[in-house]
Amino acid sequence: MKTYKFLSLLFIAFSLFTLSSCQNSDDDDPQDTSTGNLQIKFENGFNNLGDIVLNQTVQTSAAGQKHSFSALKYVISNISLIDESGKEFKYNENNPDKGAFIIDQADAVAGIVYINLNGIPKNNYKKVKFGLGISQNAYLLGQDGQAEFWTRAKQKGMSWSWAAGYVFVKLEGKYGNTAADTEFMNHTGNMGNVTANNTPDLYREITLNLPTTARVSSQIKPSIHILADLNQFLSGSKTLSLTTENNMMMGSSQHLVDVTNNLTAMFKVDHVHND
């Protein structure tokens, strides 16, 4: 009788182990080609406090200047997700029609601008990478290769003539030493073919670690919340001041190269939701 009970318990334990192993195998099946969706949320702020209100929020720079924004826009493109093994999934690389987005503070909902990505392979992702601006590889495809995004960029005021290309970052507002009362306009971006024109390439790539793994599956749509600290504009790795010499600039002058280098460091992932 005891032998029978022992064998019965052994059979039950083996069955449970086999079932658990199968479930774990299914969960980690490397052949699983299913896809899911992922959301990236951008929140623009100062000193890691979000929700800049256009024409209202005033910041004091490291040099003591006060400044506020009436326009705050930038282009995000070439988004990549990097998994736990270091493998990289590139989302519509160098395809602005499907893979480039304009982050416009005027479109923010409760301080957040949303990007929704679909067709993301099921995986656990540890890093996100993206470009600030449009790469030369994408731009040199010509207007036919990015007609939809070009139209969106024109509508948003994020382009010059086709020969000149895109505005990467558009910052407009007011500044001053005692009060923000003098107009400024800093528009960064490449001027056409940078090699042929011998001009700086202001396209930058940013890679951010995720504090929590983004677990993409057909049932889970992770949300990556990125804070953009616009204090970096004038108070980044190089302290800048707005003057009558640089307060109305477009393109890739040295001042705008410095602005670009500062802004490259403004992004950080605040948190990840796996819902």
Summed up, the domain count is 1
Task: Give the C-alpha Rg.
Answer: 24 Å
Q: Spans with pLDDT under 50 lasting ≥5 residues?
A: 1-7, 9-27
- Please work out how many helical segments DSSP would assign: 7
Structure classification: alpha+beta
Order of helices and strands: HEEEEHEEEHHEEHEEHEHE
What is the beta-strand fraction?
35-45%
Distance between the termini: 50 Å
Average residue pLDDT: 91
Largest sheet: 9 strands, mixed
Q: What is the number of E strands?
A: 13
Apparent shape: globular
Proportion in helices: 10-25%
Overview of the molecule:
The protein is 22% helix and 39% strand. It is globular. It is an alpha+beta fold. A hairpin with a 5-residue loop joins strand 8 and strand 9. The chain has seven helices and 13 strands. Strands 2, 3, 4, 5, 7, 8, 9, 10 and 12 form a nine-stranded mixed β-sheet that branches. A four-stranded mixed β-sheet has the order 6-1-11-13, with no helix packed on it.
